[in-house]
């Protein structure tokens, strides 16, 4: 009798909790969408649902900062416009008529995620938020982010404001190749002429080699994080969208990439031999190779040399991973190019 009563109680409890709606994204360590790329080559190292169009919250500000850094004088002092005062969401608490330079606004944008800073920068750049959004979308198109559309510079929710993990990772890779941008997002603590900030991004404090880039959160987008780290000469950028454990998942992705891959750099001054003729690449090449597999080089002479604008091509350099060709590039005669 006691066993039957216990069974009934257990079934009742299961029925009660089974009727509750549980958001599995919040109890999973995995993101709704994620990707990792090697920075310099933008080679995809791992991905899951990377082409799904999703909101990205304040990771939007990566594009905002990139456009401003490329187009504006960071030392210019501006007057805060009325539209940038009291903007919804995270803030650096700009005041009406306050004077501040563009640099301090950019740091406030990326370290403190100031939506008011985003508005002030947008108006400074283009005269209006709407015009600045056009510049953001133009830049996205030039990078090849074809499945991205911006409607504001901060990442506030909007049905037509979206990206994909792949697009956002490409944007972040592009941004991290800009030394000024990289310096901003890798800064833990900043003291400017007008403002001082501490960076919210916990990756900078907790992950070895971390050097950026941006956190984001809205109810609609969930927790979003774009991360960048460098180890042993290889940079990796990760994106996780709608990921409850965004720091843990990003760290795991980075660990996996650094464990499984390395960046192979073939210097343009490295000399190869093709039928007793010295030859080399026209420029330094970088490729990502698996750590655990054998890599072999093979020089293949051309039956008929080709004259190109870069010189006389006499052979091909092929690189194999096990038995698979992973790289092929022209080799140029050193003598004929001197």
Strand order of the largest sheet: 2-1-9-8-7
Distance between the termini: 97 Å
Order of helices and strands: HHEEHEEHHHHHEEHEEEHEEEEEEEH
As residue ranges, the low-confidence spans are 1-28
Strand content: 25-35%
Mean pLDDT: 91
Structural shape? elongated
The amount of helix comes to 25-40%
C-alpha Rg (nearest Å) = 25 Å
Structural class: alpha+beta
Largest sheet: 5 strands, antiparallel
Number of H/I helices: 11
Number of strands: 16
Describe this structure in words.
The chain is 33% helix and 31% strand. The protein is of the alpha+beta class and 338 residues long. A five-stranded antiparallel sheet has the order 2-1-9-8-7, sandwiched between helices. The protein has a five-stranded antiparallel sheet with strand order 11-12-16-15-14. Strands 3-4 form a two-stranded antiparallel ribbon. A hairpin with a 2-residue loop joins strand 14 and strand 15 (311-321). Mean pLDDT is 91; it is low at 1-28.
Chart the SSEs and their pairings.
Layout: H1 2-18, H2 24-27, E1 33-38, E2 44-48, H3 61-71, E3 77-79, E4 99-101, H4 102-111, H5 115-126, H6 129-143, H7 165-176, H8 179-185, E5 189-191, E6 196-198, H9 203-206, E7 210-218, E8 222-231, E9 234-241, H10 246-260, E10 261-266, E11 272-274, E12 277-280, E13 285-290, E14 295-308, E15 311-321, E16 324-333, H11 334-337
Antiparallel strand pairs: 1-2, 1-9, 3-4, 5-6, 7-8, 8-9, 10-13, 11-12, 12-16, 14-15, 15-16
Helix pairs in contact: 3-5, 4-5, 5-6
What are its keywords?
31% strand; 5-stranded antiparallel β-sheet; elongated; 338 residues; alpha+beta
